[in-house]
């Protein structure tokens, strides 16, 4: 029996005829119904059915073979011997190329690419140049490997330069040998640092010299000479009794606080004085400076006590004055800034110092020279949408970026006089 090629994905109730048999799909399997009226069941699945009914057929969808269940086994139905292979048919003509589809819409513009130069290196002469781009857009780097050019012709020999005058500068001993050429041609110096060699052997002792003549020693000198025993004597009493030193003689310095007959050096004296001063500032490290600081008053203690008495009376008096001043301030009204309004061009006068002006532009406010004094101040606010312009007459106006107008409603400016002829303009200026 030949293998049956059942349809894929059949629907319930679909029929399929092969030879003298017709199969109907019941949703699970194909049920065969022959022309003789006999029926048999065909199970279509990937795995072996678990049925034990003899004569049941199974179509394996994996290998496309049909099996029949008999006596506990699934037996493959024979499909007969294959026939001879037929000849390969001729290749049909190639079909026509279809028309190109319509061009799609242009995509959005990508970010601008930044291409920076990376490395530029040389390769052997005659080699091929290489260009590589690394990184991803929009940040990429381009690098070049360029072959060296052929060696050029030898150039003409230049003029002979001046002869160099190299002289020896210094030669000193050091740990490490070094040489340095200083100066510029044609006048240069060669400086050398040469390490010391190893110590040589000691030389032979020289011959003894001839004996000197016998000296003459005064009898009263502190040093005596005995010609018989050829010895020198020292009269210490004569040598050290009331010696008169010259030059800068030195002696051991005693420790601070020493109170003996030991010789006192200048260092010992300075140490004792420093202990008395106890690190006082240089302006108070002498008795004269201390006396001056006390006003050269031998009765300083009495003067200080008397001053305390006077200070007590003064404090009591000031306390009474403070009470009186406080009572007076309580009766004073708080200071207010005079307010004035202008709606037309106006020139300030001396009595405007300290005033607050609200102006409705457009108008010009003129600041005259030699009318106000240093420290005077005038405040101006724009109460309307018109432009307010400041102008100086005999006076220099100083402002940021030389701006002298208020162009917005409720913009404000302050005129601060530096002198009778110079004023600063500060505020919402345009």
Commentary on this structure:
This protein has 430 residues and is mainly β. Among the domains are: 15-76, no CATH class; 339-427, Sandwich (Jelly Rolls). It is built from 4 helices and 25 strands. It has helices at 236-240, 266-277, 287-293, 300-330, and strands spanning 15-18, 21-25, 30-34, 39-45, 57-60, 65-70, 73-76, 114-123, 130-136, 139-147, 165-174, 178-184, 187-195, 223-226, 231-234, 339-342, 346-347, 356-359, 363-368, 377-382, 388-393, 396-398, 405-406, 412-419, 422-427. The chain has a 7-stranded mixed beta sheet with strand order 1-2-3-4-5-6-7, with no helix packed on it. Strands 16-18-20-24-25-22 form a 6-stranded mixed beta sheet, with no helix packed on it. The longest helix is centred in the C-terminal third of the chain and has 31 residues, at 300-330. It is extended and about 160 Å long. It starts with 14 loop residues before the first strand and ends with a strand. 7% of the residues are buried. The model has no long low-confidence stretch (mean pLDDT 82).
Number of helices: 4
Structural class: mainly beta
The order of strands across the largest sheet is: 1-2-3-4-5-6-7
Q: Give the low-confidence spans.
A: none
Quick one: CATH class of the domain at 339-427? Answer: Mainly Beta
Mean pLDDT value: 82
Task: Write the CATH architecture name of the domain at 339-427.
Answer: Sandwich
Radius of gyration using CA atoms only: 63 Å
Helix content range: 10-25%
Terminal CA distance: 106 Å
Spatial shape: extended
Largest sheet: 7 strands, mixed
Order of helices and strands: EEEEEEEEEEEEEEEHHHHEEEEEEEEEE
CATH fold naming of the domain at 339-427: Jelly Rolls
Percentage of residues in strands:
25-35%
Number of strands: 25
């Amino acid at each position: 029996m030949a293998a049956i090629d059942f349809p894929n994905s059949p629907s319930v109730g679909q029929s399929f005829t092969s030879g003298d048999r017709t199969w109907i799909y019941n949703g699970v399997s194909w049920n065969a119904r022959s022309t003789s009226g006999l029926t048999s069941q065909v199970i279509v699945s990937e795995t072996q059915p678990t049925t034990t009914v003899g004569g049941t057929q199974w179509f394996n969808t994996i290998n496309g073979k049909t099996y029949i269940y008999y006596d506990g086994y699934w037996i493959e139905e024979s499909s007969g011997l294959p026939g001879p292979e037929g000849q390969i048919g001729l290749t049909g003509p190639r079909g026509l190329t279809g028309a190109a589809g319509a061009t799609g819409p242009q995509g959005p513009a990508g970010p601008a690419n930044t291409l920076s130069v990376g490395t530029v290196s040389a390769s052997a002469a005659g080699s091929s140049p290489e260009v590589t781009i690394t990184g991803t857009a929009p940040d990429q780097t381009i690098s070049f490997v360029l072959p060296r050019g052929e060696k050029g012709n030898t150039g003409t020999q230049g003029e002979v330069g001046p002869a160099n005058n190299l002289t020896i500068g210094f030669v000193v001993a050091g740990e490490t040998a070094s040489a340095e050429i200083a100066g510029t041609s044609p006048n240069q110096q060669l400086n050398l640092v040469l390490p010391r060699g190893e110590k040589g052997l000691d030389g032979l002792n020289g011959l003894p010299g001839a004996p000197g003549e016998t000296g003459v020693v005064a009898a009263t000198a502190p040093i005596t000479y005995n010609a018989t025993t050829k010895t020198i004597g020292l009269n210490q009493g004569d040598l050290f009794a009331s010696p008169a030193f010259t030059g800068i003689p030195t002696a051991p310095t005693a420790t601070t606080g020493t109170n003996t007959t030991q010789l006192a050096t200048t260092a010992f004296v300075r140490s004792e004085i420093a202990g008395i001063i106890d690190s006082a500032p240089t302006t108070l490290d002498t008795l004269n400076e201390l006396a001056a600081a006390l006003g050269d008053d031998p009765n300083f203690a009495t003067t200080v006590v008397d001053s305390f008495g006077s200070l007590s009376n003064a404090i009591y008096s000031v306390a009474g004055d403070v009470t009186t001043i406080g009572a007076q301030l309580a009766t004073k009204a708080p200071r207010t800034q005079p307010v004035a309004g202008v709606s037309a061009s106006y020139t300030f006068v001396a009595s405007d110092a300290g005033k607050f002006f609200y102006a409705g532009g457009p108008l010009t406010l003129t600041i005259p020279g030699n009318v106000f004094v240093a420290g005077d101040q005038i405040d101006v606010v724009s109460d309307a949408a018109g432009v307010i312009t400041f102008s100086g007459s005999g006076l220099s106006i100083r402002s940021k970026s030389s701006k002298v107008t208020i162009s917005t409603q409720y913009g404000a400016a302050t005129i601060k006089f530096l002198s009778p002829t110079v004023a600063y303009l500060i505020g919402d200026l345009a």
